[in-house]
Specification:
- The chain is mainly alpha-helical.
- The protein contains one helix and no strands.
């Protein structure tokens, strides 16, 4: 496997991981404060 392919896959995995983490954090924050309007 080419190094650029590994880098591309690692970058994609990193972005997906960050997106999932931020999404879960936002959902858990909304669940913690149900009376607070979501931004």
């Amino acid at each position: 496997m080419a190094l650029s392919d590994i880098t591309r896959r690692a970058g994609l995995a990193l972005v997906l991981g960050l997106t999932a983490t931020l999404g879960l954090g936002a959902m858990s924050a909304a669940a913690d404060f149900p009376d607070r309007p979501s931004p």
